[in-house]
Specification:
2 copies of one chain form a homodimer. The first copy, chain A, has helices at 9-21, 34-41, 45-57, 86-92, 111-117, 164-171, 188-194; strands spanning 30-31, 61-64, 68-71, 77-83, 97-107, 125-134, 137-146, 176-185, 201-211, 214-223, 228-232. In chain A, the strands form 2 sheets. The first copy, chain A, has a 6-stranded antiparallel beta sheet with strand order 5-6-7-10-9-8. The first copy, chain A, has a 3-stranded antiparallel beta sheet with strand order 1-3-2, covered by helices on one side. The longest helix of chain A is centred in the N-terminal third of the chain and has 13 residues, at 9-21. The first copy, chain A, folds into 2 domains: 9-71, Orthogonal Bundle (Arc Repressor Mutant, subunit A), CATH 1.10.10.10; 86-223, 3-Layer(aba) Sandwich (Chorismate lyase). In chain A, helix 1 crosses helix 3 and helix 2 (34-41) crosses helix 3. Chain A is built from 7 helices and 11 strands. In chain A, strand 6 (125-134) and strand 7 (137-146) form a beta hairpin. Chains A and B meet through helix 1, strand 4, helix 6, strand 8 and strand 9 of A and helix 1, strand 4, helix 6, strand 8 and strand 9 of B. Strand 11 of chain A pairs antiparallel with strand 8 of chain B. The first copy, chain A, binds a DNA duplex (19 and 19 nucleotides) through helix 3.
DNA sequence: AAGTGGTCTAGACCACGCG
DNA sequence: GCGTGGTCTAGACCACTTA
């Protein structure tokens, strides 16, 4: 058994993936421990650790102390979606970007909003509706509520030139948040803004972000029909 | 300056995140290099490296050799969706799972399919349509094409008890793939299978997986209205 | 009790890419 | 050219978990 020279963690990772794909190591199998693999590969255990950890992050390996490392029986595919500023998303496609503020009000939100954002039921929030355009055509409709207690500077922002989408990313950090993807039928007002038929199926992205215990902003983005969110596996 | 004792990479990461959220380090700022931070934190450079790498993976830091590490000006949110076997997804919600095979044929696919899968235009593929149920109610409709040149064993699988969704994960490894999320209006047949009104908005997940140069399977999942794909940020 | 992965260290060399 | 992050090493100790 000549210790083949796998000197980088990437090459170790590639060899591990090769063995999984070639079914040398089958789903459910226990694979050798790090120390043994390090000897076999002719590298330090830390290098093997780095490689196995990377593969485990993709869901192809299950690792547990003492129990060892197993090939996942039913790997959970992990699709990472990169949600960028919409302007960048549009420009990355080579399209010209434009932004149109539809309305901007400071008012008491519906209970569904104040409830989700955990703001007082009578507390006013900044409400912004805006349209993002690609090549002059509607691309996405943004419907946003901003917690002025957390981002008071937003009160002075018109959001006509720079979108709330973009301004908030630079001026309001968040510690965590939730995001949900769903399909909904566009209602009259939304369909009108997007220039589509009422009840058309549109992809909706709902985000709610927090800074510690306080909600920062709640936003819904509706994308024009045909829009696809893509990524690799 | 007493080197506060940050002994684990997680604690270093927490401190780095704290400084970003507290805007000690603002968007666009260059932060100290690893060696300096290691001295300040009283730990090894490798520990700082591990922490900064983890933060960079979330998109909050941009790291480049020689140029150093900067706080991202416009962080790209990364949402990782875990696409599990549908049975597990349903059971994880505490619901009972059932599976209903609708049809299973070995036939020449439409050109759109053979084109995407890069199979010969006259080459037959296995086509499977099936319904996944939660608590007896339709949950998702699966429409799948399987490359028999890559997974010939599938020919002997009835897919009536074990879904193609589940069987393939155990018996056909893939090296890479694409996934797309979109909103579409259910056509007559699909709406019928799902027990919903025609033209209802449904969330569609389209996946195409490959084993090296050969396509393994192409599948579309249509989820009943109201379904949300959720994750944290 | 013991085996496994998880992590830290101190030092070293390297590759990239600004200036 | 040279500073920065990227990585490898050898050794060590620890934490968790299972047998």
């Amino acid at each position: 058994m000549t210790p083949s020279s796998f000197r980088t963690w990437q090459s170790v990772q590639a060899e591990v993936l090769r063995r999984i794909h070639a079914r040398d190591w089958k789903p459910g199998d226990l694979i050798p421990n790090e120390a043994d693999l390090a000897v076999e590969f002719g590298c330090a255990r830390a290098t093997v650790n780095r490689a196995l950890r990377a593969v485990a992050e993709t869901g192809l390996l299950d690792r547990r102390r003492k129990a060892g490392t197993r090939v996942a029986a039913q790997p959970v595919a992990k699709a990472t979606l990169e949600i960028a500023v919409i302007r960048h998303e549009v420009e990355a496609r080579g399209d010209t970007y434009d932004h149109l503020l539809i309305e901007r009000h400071y008012l008491t939100p519906p209970l569904a909003i104040s409830g989700a954002m955990r703001t007082g039921s009578t507390e006013k929030l900044l409400h912004v509706r805006a349209l993002h355009l690609a090549e002059g055509a509607p691309y996405a409709l943004e419907n946003r509520w901003i917690n002025m207690r957390v981002v008071p500077e937003a009160m002075n922002e018109p959001f006509d030139r720079v979108s709330a989408n973009e301004w908030l990313l630079q001026h309001a950090a968040y510690t965590h948040g939730d995001i949900a993807f769903s399909a909904i039928q566009a209602n009259g007002a939304d369909a009108d803004s997007l220039g589509i038929a009422e009840n058309s199926a549109v992809l909706a992205i709902d985000r709610l972000t927090w800074n510690r215990e306080a909600s920062v902003t709640k936003v819904q983005l509706l994308f024009t029909p045909g829009y696809q969110l893509r990524t690799g596996l």
